[in-house]
Amino acid sequence: MKVTRRDMLFRIPALALGGLTLGGMIAGCRDDEKTTAGAPQAADPTKTNSLMSSLPLYYPGTEALQSNEMRISFLGTSPIPRLAQECESVFIEVGKGTDGPLDQFIFDVGSGVVAKYNAMGIPFRKMNKVFITHLHGDHTSDLTHIYCFGPSGDRKSPLFVWGPSASGLTDPSSGYVYNDDGLNVFCKTFRDMMRWHSESFSFGATSYASCPTLAKTITDWGLPAGTAPVTPTIGPPDGTTEGYAVVPIELNWSTIGGVAYNNPATGVKITHFPVIHCRKGSIGYKLEWTIPGGGGKRITVIFSGDTKPCYEMINQANNGGSGIDVFIHEMVVPAEVWAAKNLGYADVNSAKSDPRWTAALNYATAVQNSSHTSQGAFGYLLSQMTPSPRLAVATHFQATDDTIASATTSVRNHYPVGDLTFAADFMVLNVTTNNIVLRRAAVNEWAWYPQNKVYPDNNAPKYASPTAQLDLTDEIPTPKDVFGNDTYRTDGY
């Protein structure tokens, strides 16, 4: 039975969420439950997520956003790639536009997430604005696919990438200054690294004749003057408005409240602030959407990226006393749990007798100390926010029944009330100023690319013939019959 969004227009109270995350079961047996003599047995709590199973379904492509509505889709929610949870990525859409949402954004783009964007029916043309919190591989890996295959889809316009400036760190042993580890150099190197791909795929159109000028886009989005695509080192230069242009918008990582994006036409303003993760040069983002025609009403979301607990996060969430609607913050399992799982054990007690235990625990502890927020610390952060967020979402967290139960206890020790949930891939939030609805996307794991929007004004391709770049001296010619038909074809088309 299909559950419509109208059926779910209520806020799930904190205690109900707590009950779900503590292993509340839905009626009937799941596929992973086994039966003995007709009696159901409990599912393995290390391999199930009852919270996600309990959520009503959302059917992508069946609902247009309303003019006062935001949709947040979690398409990567883990620090490690796994089938149920790929690495971090959040897709935010706002309002009702002439071509789907009024505006849309990607925050981080970890490994494996493009398949999930595909399953959600999100085409390349809606994947043109990517905000990166830091330059770790688990937050940037699938930028490769978005960039490389966007122009052969329907993003025949530049890929805009936001991210932090160089760390400015000096190596304490060698004195070497890390002055080339920011977004600009990242995009420049990335552009060169992908040159073989971009050239080889230029037998098809990669730009639109009527694409807005880069200068107009910069003005519309409030980008800094002088924003421009990185220029490839090798080969002939490309146009500034084509799909293989990469436009970095490097943000000073140390600036508090710096403006990354400001579009009066859609009402979206995105600012950034420093966080604490691994080394200098990580940032979080705050998206504030002033609803057009909404009498000044606003929906505000924070995405932390990876970070240790920091006071600035509390300050940003307090938002001058007005608070925020959705607080998306990283959280990691306890170091003991991470160490046990890395050693292949289901529980900590079993792992402690392994001779590798001390080394594994020391490393997991070092990871947390350099980079991340513990479960209790996440609860403490929430307890310090005035007012509390309308919904707090823990992400970057391996979410199964056992870890969720432990995390709920830890968080609630500090934050006993307030709406709380734990993200997993395909969790979808619909947010208005009155309601926040949690659902789970029903997707087709065999889905092809989403339907492209085909424009009639594609420019001519860089290489007119698809074989212009090939050495055909060793080609096996396709045999033809007397009518000129391809005799290899035996598929009936």
Describe the structure.
By secondary structure, the protein is an alpha/beta fold. Among the domains are: 6-25 and 44-255 and 422-441, no CATH class; 336-371, no CATH class. Helices cover 22% and strands 20% of the residues. It has 13 helices and 20 strands. The protein has a 9-stranded mixed beta sheet with strand order 3-20-19-4-5-6-7-8-11, with helices on one face. Strands 12-13-14-15-16-17-18 form a 7-stranded mixed beta sheet. Strands 1-2 form a two-stranded antiparallel sheet. A hairpin with a 2-residue loop joins strand 5 (89-97) and strand 6. Helix 9 packs across helix 11 (357-371) and helix 12 (375-383) runs parallel beside helix 13. The longest helix has 15 residues, at 357-371. The protein is globular. It starts with 13 loop residues before the first helix and ends in a 52-residue tail after the last strand. 43% of the residues are buried.
